[in-house]
Amino acid sequence: MEAARYRDVYIAGPDLVAPVLRGVVPPVDGAPYRISPFFPPSARDVFAEVVERIRAGALTGRQTANACWCALVSPPEIACLIDEVYGSAADDSPRLSALRRFVAALPGDCQFSLVALAF
Question: Number of structural domains, the chain?
Answer without folding.
Answer: 1
